[in-house]
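Section handout, structural biology tutorial.
Before the tutorial, make sure you can parse a SMILES string by hand: atoms, branches in parentheses, ring closures as digits. In the record below the ligand is 2-acetamido-2-deoxy-beta-D-glucopyranose, and the chain has 857 residues. In the tutorial you will relate the predicted structure tokens back to the input. Do not try to memorize them.
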Amino acid sequence: MNPNLIPLIIYLHLLSSFLTLSPPSYAAPLALNCGSKDGGNDADNRKWESDSKYLVAGGKSVSSTALTQDPSLSSDVPYMTTRIFTGETSYKFDVNSTSRYILRLHFYPSDYPNFNVSNSYSVVTTNSITLLKNFSAFITAEALSQAYLIKEFSLAAFNSDSITVTFKPADKSFAFVNGIELITEPELFDDQAGLVGVAENSGTIDGVSSNMQNMFRLNVGGQYIPPTNDSGGLMRSWYDDTPYIFGAGTISHIANVTIDYQELPEATAPAEVYRTARSQGPDPNINKQSNVTWLFPVDANFTYLVRFHFCEYQIDKINQRVFEIYLNNETAFATADIIAWTGGKGIPTRKDYAIYVGDKSGDEELWVTLHTNIDLKPEFYDILLNGLEVFKISDSKSNLAGKNPVLSEMMQKQLIANREAYDPNAIQIKHVVGGAMGGAATIGVAMVLLFVIRRRKRVSGSDSGVTSWLPVYGNLTSKSTMSGKSQCGSNLSSDAVCNCRYFSLVEIKSATNNFEEGNVIGVGGFGKVYKGIIDGNMKVAIKRSNPSSEQGVNEFVTEIEMLSKLRHRHLVSLIGFCEEGNEMVLVYDYMGKGTLREHLYKGNKITLSWKQRLDILVGAAKGLHYLHTGAKYTIIHRDVKTTNILCDDNWVAKVSDFGLSKTGPNLNQNHVSTVVKGSFGYLDPEYFRRQQLTEKSDVYSFGVVLFEVLCARPALNPNLPKEQVSLADFALQSARRGTLEEMVDPHLKGMIKPDSFKKFTDCSLRCLADHGMERPSMGDVLWTLEFVLKQETKGEEMRNEKSGSSGGGTVEVPIQSSDMIAMHMNTLNLDDDDDEYDYDSDDDGNAFSQIVDPKGR
Ligand SMILES: *[C@@H]1O[C@H](CO)[C@@H](O)[C@H](O)[C@H]1NC(C)=O
Ligand SMILES: *[C@@H]1O[C@H](CO)[C@@H](O)[C@H](O)[C@H]1NC(C)=O
Ligand SMILES: *[C@@H]1O[C@H](CO)[C@@H](O)[C@H](O)[C@H]1NC(C)=O
Ligand SMILES: *[C@@H]1O[C@H](CO)[C@@H](O)[C@H](O)[C@H]1NC(C)=O
Ligand SMILES: *[C@@H]1O[C@H](CO)[C@@H](O)[C@H](O)[C@H]1NC(C)=O
Ligand SMILES: *[C@@H]1O[C@H](CO)[C@@H](O)[C@H](O)[C@H]1NC(C)=O
Ligand SMILES: *[C@@H]1O[C@H](CO)[C@@H](O)[C@H](O)[C@H]1NC(C)=O
Ligand SMILES: *[C@@H]1O[C@H](CO)[C@@H](O)[C@H](O)[C@H]1NC(C)=O
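Predicted structure of the complex:
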């Protein structure tokens, strides 16, 4: 033997023993920016690496870069680059054979050079499990009206040292992926989750050995939690639950408590999830008669594991709050008592129940229902939920793939219409239908949307008569909640149902009697607003654009974008729209009581009591608070004023006119940011100075509204002495001089309790602070208003009792009976010519006017 080789042999020997002895190096946690050379950092400053070193040799793939960047993309990385597979190709990751893993796939079905993404169908498998089959990211994204998609899987330990993820294009097609994440998941599942709907104790699901897909993950009663704020480094997103709530009558809470995890792994859910919750309202009688339901669209013929996250912080004794849990109307647990499970406040727990969702047609829904347990007579008839996750479990063939969603005829028609209307090159489609709120954040709305397409089909039996495709939630009247009637919207003519649909011009013309002048109820820069009747008897407000208004087009689009995404009891709902030829028309719920302003001083025929005014303000504040916090991105209204706060027939206040709204993160890239928009008298001075828009600009405007309501005078009144022209300035001056009381509407004199007055005006003045930083948040304002209202209601109740009024009927605003008649008359007189002189404080030429605005400009 050549002695020179000896050192080499020793070296090789050492090397091999070293290799076997040293702990294997695992890939996870891993974030791959597929198709990029060097990786990059995303918007949260998280590092993504290139995917090339994990590709298994022999595959067929190329890297590519998207041609267009959708404004709703949360970050360039990992979406703008992609790996395109023209033949079967695998990635291989070294893993710990005894660990669970989270595998997350990101898809951005955009335009890539030489590849038409609408032709991409793929199969994605990992080891022996089928994750996606005949999967079209394009169709899925389109149906969800999102720019990008994230599919998340939780994979049981494979007993193998590697995970292979294989992409296989369909015949003559290609597959692609933009990002891959692989993260070690601590054991978070039980081996025995009760299976609901089978004979008692006979079925359990072994979560430990199951492969799953996460379908929904909600921070119930709270807001979106981004991956970087997740616990355990699992990089999960937790979404707002409001899009899934079926029916009304719930309230959300934020608790100021330290979460004590005790035995529970912190990775189960971040403390933020446990600190927020949803429960029912304060009235036990209503609670006893109503269910709180979350409704999810799911793929049929799979078993689902539903995980409930609970944490009590209001009570601390057993049998104070006990409720039943149902899955698809089957009892999962009848006596849920969080304190009995956890032993105290601030201690979280989670409970898993599984249910099989059948394969009969129409079984594509999962109902999660909580109802207070009446039999056990708990101290409080109420429910509580902090977080909710839904996982799909792989079937007996190790398959997790569902079908591609089906676009309804309605939506197809609309996509085509939008394509033609707004951009000959069809690039803007996603702006119109998807757009503003940001891909993943809209997943909820979109899923519900898709769901409703299916539901409606079933309800109506055919596509023809029923063209609505937007979610049904959040806008239901209290009445329907109380009677516990089905709220699924089969009764389409009811205004309790919000649906967004595409109208033909013929329908619109017939609704308004060919735009008859007699039906005009308002005029603005955008055009005229007509009263109309659709579906035989449903009153609507129809806003018709002035074809010459170019600005109108943008605002038309903004309004559709915003309103078709946002559904809230205190936001005006868009029923649908029409654009045909030169006509652009928006159709809204009819707001029977008109604008807040006309009940303050613009020819008001009745005087709203202090409590009624507070009620309306609380509603408007809720609407704005929802805009600011309810979505992933803050939405800034930009034009808060008393003519944009409308009241429906039941005096429920709704914020309207989203033509100028802007969403948070895109603010700086926004093409009109240099133009200060809004209405004089309400404009935030800081925004005016620095042209920097924040949600605190809305708070400022709302401060002006608060004073307008208190003083019953316009925000600007040039007929008054100079120092009084601007209400905001006058209020600040009066406060300094201590003469605020002199400004108060004479009708309210003596009706406001001194401490309420102080709380109200303190808050209003803080809203008017010169610097946004010093102003309260909309949430704080809401809290104060509710507090003041409660104080005033205490007095009112006593008065009502004395006068023997039962107050049983109306839920919203118990209105004094003398006012009732006056209000009724007012409704009848709504389209009277209302020609009194009044300085038009919103006459700033902005294109979008209110929905109901007495004419006479
Ligand atoms: C592999 O995972 C198991 C279970 O999660 C863990 O106990 C073990 O320490 C891991 N092994 C290594 C080398 O990290
Ligand atoms: C992509 O393919 C679809 C369906 O095959 C077709 O309708 C569309 O025009 C194609 N787009 C481009 C840009 O070629
Ligand atoms: C995420 O965490 C950071 C730091 O703890 C915090 O400042 C931020 O408000 C959190 N974001 C959300 C949306 O919770
Ligand atoms: C939370 O509670 C602590 C102690 O009770 C208090 O100091 C703090 O101000 C509270 N925070 C909020 C936001 O209410
Ligand atoms: C549950 O019951 C409601 C009526 O209470 C019904 O509308 C709904 O379809 C049921 N859901 C399922 C999945 O059976
Ligand atoms: C609540 O839901 C349960 C289960 O779906 C159902 O049996 C019950 O009738 C519902 N109650 C009301 C008031 O809707
Ligand atoms: C339901 O899933 C099973 C596999 O678990 C499959 O054999 C069966 O064909 C499916 N039924 C339908 C209607 O798709
Ligand atoms: C694949 O998906 C497309 C779109 O949903 C559908 O038209 C087609 O029939 C599917 N193909 C198979 C083999 O399932």
